[in-house]
Amino acid sequence: MSSIRIALAQIDTSVGNLEANAAKVLDYSRRAGAQHATVVAFPEMTLTGYPIEDLALRATFRKAAWDKANEMATTLEQEGLGQLYVVVGTIGTDHGNGKPRNRLVVLHNGQVWAAYDKHFLPNYGVFDEFRIFSSGDRSVVLDIEGVQVGVAICEDIWQDGGPVAAMANQNIDLLLTINGSPYEEGKGHVRTELAARRAAEVNAPIVYLNQVGGQDDLVFDGASFVLDTDGALLERSPMFMEDLSFIDIDTELEHQQQSTIAAMPDPDEEVYTACVLGLKDYMAKNGFKGVTLGLSGGIDSALVAAMAADACGGENVWGISMPSMYSSDGSKDDAADLATNLNAHYEIQPIEPLFKAFQQQLDLQGVAAENLQARIRGVIVMAKSNSQGVLALATGNKSELACGYSTIYGDAVGGYAPIKDLFKTKVWQLSRWRNAAAAEGMGIGGLHIVGNEQGNAGVMPESGVIIPVNSIEKAPSAELRPGQKDSDSLPEYNLLDQVLAAYIEHAHGRADLIADGFDEATVDTVMRLVDRAEWKRRQYPLGPKVSALAFGRDRRLPITNAFRE
Amino acid sequence: MSSIRIALAQIDTSVGNLEANAAKVLDYSRRAGAQHATVVAFPEMTLTGYPIEDLALRATFRKAAWDKANEMATTLEQEGLGQLYVVVGTIGTDHGNGKPRNRLVVLHNGQVWAAYDKHFLPNYGVFDEFRIFSSGDRSVVLDIEGVQVGVAICEDIWQDGGPVAAMANQNIDLLLTINGSPYEEGKGHVRTELAARRAAEVNAPIVYLNQVGGQDDLVFDGASFVLDTDGALLERSPMFMEDLSFIDIDTELEHQQQSTIAAMPDPDEEVYTACVLGLKDYMAKNGFKGVTLGLSGGIDSALVAAMAADACGGENVWGISMPSMYSSDGSKDDAADLATNLNAHYEIQPIEPLFKAFQQQLDLQGVAAENLQARIRGVIVMAKSNSQGVLALATGNKSELACGYSTIYGDAVGGYAPIKDLFKTKVWQLSRWRNAAAAEGMGIGGLHIVGNEQGNAGVMPESGVIIPVNSIEKAPSAELRPGQKDSDSLPEYNLLDQVLAAYIEHAHGRADLIADGFDEATVDTVMRLVDRAEWKRRQYPLGPKVSALAFGRDRRLPITNAFRE
C-alpha cells in the first residue's frame, strides 16, 4: 500500500496539565480514526504543554509524562484504535547525562513506539531550550504501511544540516514536522518559504503541524499546512482555532491532491485576534472568569476593554472610571459610552477624596503627586481584583512602556497586559479595524478564535460602534495635571514608534539610528527615555543571589503549570 | 629569564560603563607597574562589565569596546607602561557568524595583542551565555618573557575537555584563568578543589582571578587565589573587597613561594556581607544615595534596615513606621528603637485615616481588606522614594516570597530586595550575628567591603545593639488582623525552610519530598503555597508577543547599563 491519510490535529494544550492534554489527544485521535486516518499528528510537546521551562527539570514530572503516554497507548488499543499511528510530542530523559529531551513518540498497537529527539535547541529570542534540554543525535524515518515518513521537531527545519539534511538521500516519501512556533506579525510567509526549501531538500511533501493558543506571554497561531514536493500549498488549517484537517499522501502520484485551504485574516484582524487569544487562554489556563480595569476614556483602556469583551464577554468585564480633579468631562463620557457599547459592568470611583487624604499626610509635589494619583487607582483596581476574584488588566502600550511613560504600581498594575507589544500607532489602527469589523457585522465575541463556535457573530452594540470614535480621535493625555498632553513629554507617536522599532527591535545604536535618517535630537530623546525606563522597570524587586537557586532569573517555572506532583 | 611577577587586580566593574572600567584598569595597571609586575590580570569582561546580557548584541557597543581597548594600549605605552602585559576581558565579534564573543586580550607595547575567546558558554542557573555568545575554538598559550602562560575564561575550567585539556601536553608554566564567578554560600571550596584538579591536569600552578562587587541581582565575592601545581594555596585575595596582590612565578623552582593569604570571614559574616555588597553596588551603579523602607518592628525590616545602614550609613536610611489599628505598641517601640540604633531618619505615618477613606468608598472584606493596608503602605513608601529620590527597599525574605505570604504592590514594592534569597531561619541567624559582631566592636558601616577604608570600625550605637532583641525573639506576625501570627498560615519556619530548600533548590517533587522524610500533610501544604505564589507573582504584567522583539523575556538588557551609544 502506498497511500496514507494524515490527520493534522492542531490543538491548544496547557503546560503541566497532563490529564487535560491527554484527554484532548484521545478525543482528536478518536475523531481522526472515525475519518479513516492512518496517522494523526499533534504539536510539539503535546502531552506536557509548551514551553515548559524549568518544569522539565523535575524528574517526577518526566516520569508522570512517560506513564501517561503508556496509559494512552493502552487506552487507544482497548478502544480499537491500536492500528492508528498517533504522533505526539512529550518529554524524555537523556540516558547519558540525565538531562531532559524534547521528544516525539508514536503510540501504536498499545505501545509507545519509535522516539525521535529534537536536534536543534533554539536559544534566542523567547526560546530557552538549550538551557533545559540535551540534543538528539539521530534522524528517524518511520515506516508507516510502506510509506517512509521522516520526522522533525520545529527548530530542526529552521537550521541547515542536522537530521533533515541526513534525510536528503534517504528517499523518504514525506517529512512530518511538529511545532510550537509562536506567532509573530507576518511570520506565516517565513514558515512556508522555509518549509518549501526543506521539501525540495528531501524531495518529498512536508506536513507542518503547529500548536494553537496562548501560553503565558506567547501566542501560538496554528495555521498548520502541507506543501507538495514542489512547494505548492496542499492544505492550510485556520489561524487561532483548534482544527482537525486531513491530507491523503499517495506515493504513486507525482503531485498530491489538494485538501482544504483555510482563508487568512487581514493583517489588523490577525494582530487583534492574537492579542485576544493570548488573553483568553491566559484567563482559561489560570482559572479567571472575568477581568477588571480602569477606564480612563483614552484609547489604550478602550482597546483593552474591547479585547477583553471579545475574550470573555462584556458581562465579565468590570470597568472602573476613576476620575480626578484633572479628568475632563469628555473622558468620563467616553468611558461610560465604551462600557455601554460593551455591555460591561461600570462603576465610578472618584479619587479626589483619597488623594486629599494622602496629601493631608504627605503633601507631595510634582511627579510624586502625579504618581500618587496613578497609585490610588492601582489600589482600587487591585481591590476589585481581590474582592471579585477577577484578573486585573494593565493597559500600557509598547510605546509608553518603552519610554517609561507610566507609573510603576500605578497604571502599570495588573496580571496581564494585552497590548504591551503594540506600538501606540498600532493601537489606533486596531481600534479603527475593530469598529470597521463591527460595521461589517462582527459583534462582541464574534472573533474566529479557539473556543468560539463557528458562525457565532457575537453581540452587536446598539450604537453599532465598539470603541467611541472620540477616544480614537482626541489627543492622548495622562490627565495627571491640568492641560497635560503626551506630546509635552514624548515625540509625536508617528515618529516615536519608528525610532523605537529601530532601537528596540533591531538593536540599532545611536550611530545606526542617525544613519537611518532620524535627527539627532529625537534619537537622543528616545534613547534617554528608553534607557531610563529600563531602569524604572527595575523598581520591581531584584535582590542578591546567595544560594544555589534563588527566585526570578533561575526559577523559570511557567505560571500556568497545572502539574502538582 | 624564567621568573615573572603577576599582579591579581580583583576589581569591581560596572556593566556598560566603558569609561569607568577603563579608568580603573589604567589605575590598577599603574600600581602594578610601580610594583614591578610583569603581568597584571583583570576579571572576565573587565571593560564591558559582566554579565552584559543583550547589550552584547548591540554592534555599536562592541565597536566602542574595541576602540577603548586600543586607546588604553596607547595610553599605557605613552605612560611608559608598554612593557607590562595587561590581561583584560572584553567583548569580540565572531568573524564567521557575526555573533559576540567573550574575549580575553592582552594590552602590550601599545597594541591589543593575542585574543583568546571563551570556549564553554554556561547556560544554566543564572547564566545565559550560550544565548548571546559564540564559542572560541582554540586554546592560547602566551609566551611572556619565556614563561608559557595558558589562558582560560571562567567556565572553561568547570568543564572537562576543551582548551584546558588541550594544554595538558603543552608543558605550560602557568594556567591563568579570569572569572566572573557569582557568590554562593560555600562556593569557595568548590572553586579551589576544581582549580587544584586543573593545576594537576596541566602540571602547572594556576592563577584564579575573580571579579568582586554587586551587579544587578548577582554578587561577586572576589576571593581570587593562586594554587601551586600540587594544589597548595600560594595566595588568596580578600572576599568582597577590591584588591591588588602579587605572586612571583619562577619556572626553575619545583614549588613556588607563598604570598599573602587573606583570612576568610565566618559563614554568617560572609552571607551578611554578600547581601550588603549587593545593595551597596546596586545603589552605586544606579545612582542612589539613600534608601527608604517601612519599619514594622518585625525582624525582616529590621535586618534590611541594618544592612542598608551598613551599606550607605544610617543618615541615608529613611525609615517609615506605618502603624494600623492592628499594630501592637511593642512593634511601634521596636521600630523606633531600631531607627535610634541605626541613627536613621524616622517618621510615623499612621495608615488608619487612609484605610478609612478607602473603606468609605470600597467597603472591602477579608483578604482584600488586609491587602488594602499593605498597599496603602506601598503607596507611602513609593511617595517617599519619588519625592526624596531614594531607593525603596522591599523587605520580603525567601520563605515568605516562596509561599506568597506577602501583598503584591503592597509590602512587596521596592527596587531592591536585600534579603529575598535568605530563608526566615537565616534572617534570625544573621540578625543575631550582626548584634554579636557589634558586641565585638563592629559599628555601623564597619564591614570589610568594597569602598570601606581599612581599619574603619564604623559607628557604634549608644545601646551597643544594632537590632532590637525583641524583634529577634518575638513570634512573627503580619499584623493585618487582630492576633494574627505567621504560624496560622504557614508551617513552623524550621520545618518550612527545610521543605522549601528541597522543593525549590533541589527540584524534589512530591514523591521525592515524602522519601526525604517530610510528612504528607506538610508537603502538600508547602507545594500548594509555593505553586500558588508562583501564580500570584504573575500579577506583574505579562502580555502577548506579537512582533519580532517584545519586552521582558527577550529584552534582557541589564539595568546598570551605563552605555549610552
Description:
Chains A, B: Deamido-NAD(+) binds at residues 371, 400, 536. Chains A, B: Keywords: ATP-binding, Ligase, NAD, Nucleotide-binding. The structure is a homodimer of 565-residue chains. Helix content of chain A is 37%, strand content 17%. Chain A is α/β, with parallel strands linked by helices and 565 residues long. The first copy, chain A, has three domains: 3-263, Carbon-nitrogen hydrolase (Nitrilase/N-carbamoyl-D-aminoacid amidohydrolase), CATH 3.60.110; 269-487, 3-Layer(aba) Sandwich (Rossmann fold), CATH 3.40.50.620; 491-560, Arc Repressor Mutant, subunit A. The first copy, chain A, has a six-stranded mixed β-sheet. In chain A, α2 links the parallel β2 (39-41) and β3. In chain A, α1 (18-34) runs parallel beside α2 (59-78), α6 crosses α7 and α14 (493-505) packs across α16 (520-537). The longest helix of chain A is centred in the last third of the chain and has 23 residues, at 366-388. Chain A is elongated. The two termini of chain A are 45 Å apart. Residues 548-557 of chain A have low confidence and may be disordered. The interface between A and B is large, with 109 and 108 residues.
Characteristics:
565 residues, alpha/beta, Nitrilase/N-carbamoyl-D-aminoacid amidohydrolase, Rossmann fold, Arc Repressor Mutant, subunit A, 6-stranded mixed beta sheet, 18 strands, 37% helix, elongated
